[in-house]
Amino acid sequence: MSFVITQAPDHSIRYESYEIPEPQSDEVLVKFLAAPVNPLDLLVIKGAYPVRPKFNHSGNAILGYEGIGEVIKCGTDVTRFQPGDLVIPSAFGVGTWRSYAALNTSLLLKVDRPNDLVFAALLRMAIAPAYFLVEEIRTLKPGECIIQNAGTSTVAQYVTQFAASRGVSVISVIRDRSPDETQLIKTELFNAGAEKVLTESELASQALDLRKTKKIVLALDSVYGASGSTLLSALSDGGTFVHMGFLGGSGARLELGPQDLFGRRLTLRGFRGSDHMAARSPEEQANLLNHWVALFNQHTLRLPVLGLSLVELSEGQTNETTALGAVARAQGGSIGQRKQILLLK
């Protein structure tokens, strides 16, 4: 049975079955293989993200903004793709939380095959943003340091990997939790390349000392509010503060004084990874994506050591409870909650 996860006009999340579509002459039939439940997807569900789903099923919006699929069949006019090609969406809103989709070729980018398909499912919203944050916000030099909150997120873990290739150290900040769990996570992130791992409360007491002893030139804030304000206080004079998310809630406030802008000469920037990707031609995008796949296949890049929970959904079976449960867990946002990855078998 083919399935699709949608959002109805009453905002409820639904699991629906449908017939496998036939591609039009300029379309390809894609079977989705893996799709994550990202924080951006949760913003879409809340109606808080400007790019809305492009497709509907029975009047309900088809969810899922990232994933990896395989071309099964090509329309008569299609020349850029062939059956067996792996593809990812070239734009947000394509609707990846479904078994099959007939899609115009302009909505897809072909990618090389990684050793693990889960890596390809993370390309646009985890690996790409991490790369752009390290490579394109400011010129980072060996010996400098990045500080980031949401340290267990997939983006943060890839920031650590990309920063290491430039000789840049990373301080990752995680939410407070039980002592045993804190130590476990600190060990995992340290072994994955972070120079230092601090809890939010530890950073609050150490921020000024860090500013004196480390050259922290880039602060990456995915949380906002008090957490972001503490990152700001740890940033070295002349550093760059990047706001990239509202995991702590969009109603929170960032504490910023005149001394931060004028006395410390800090730069504040907003960040959307999609803008950096859109600045490239489709060919340049494909080359960059395939470069990351090659690094993964060479074991230079790795899957995150924390933060992934694989949820298997089998074709021909009713997966409603499993699929909707994965979305609900992501919405719950509990401490230690791993990123849900829908695997379509």
TrEMBL record:
Catalytic activity entry: a 2,3-saturated acyl-[ACP] + NADP(+) = a (2E)-enoyl-[ACP] + NADPH + H(+)
Tell me which EC number(s) this protein carries. 1.3.1.104
* GO molecular function terms attached to this record: enoyl-[acyl-carrier-protein] reductase (NADPH) activity
SUPFAM superfamilies, from UniProt? GroES-like, NAD(P)-binding Rossmann-fold domains
InterPro entries attached here? ADH-like_N (IPR013154), ER (IPR020843), GroES-like_sf (IPR011032), Mito_Enoyl-ACP_Reductase (IPR051034), NAD(P)-bd_dom_sf (IPR036291)
**Gene Ontology BP terms:** fatty acid biosynthetic process
Alphabetic keyword roster: Fatty acid biosynthesis, Fatty acid metabolism, Lipid biosynthesis, Lipid metabolism, Mitochondrion, NADP, Oxidoreductase, Transit peptide
Transmembrane parts of this sequence = none
Residues in a coiled coil are: none
Q: Could you tell me which residue ranges the Enoyl reductase (ER) domain spans?
A: 8-344
This protein's GO cellular component annotations are:
mitochondrion
Localization, UniProt: Mitochondrion
> Where does the protein principally reside?
mitochondrion
Q: Which family does it belong to?
A: Belongs to the zinc-containing alcohol dehydrogenase family. Quinone oxidoreductase subfamily.
Protein name, please? enoyl-[acyl-carrier-protein] reductase
- The organism named in the record is Xylaria arbuscula
What is the phylogenetic placement of the source species in the record?
Eukaryota, Fungi, Dikarya, Ascomycota, Pezizomycotina
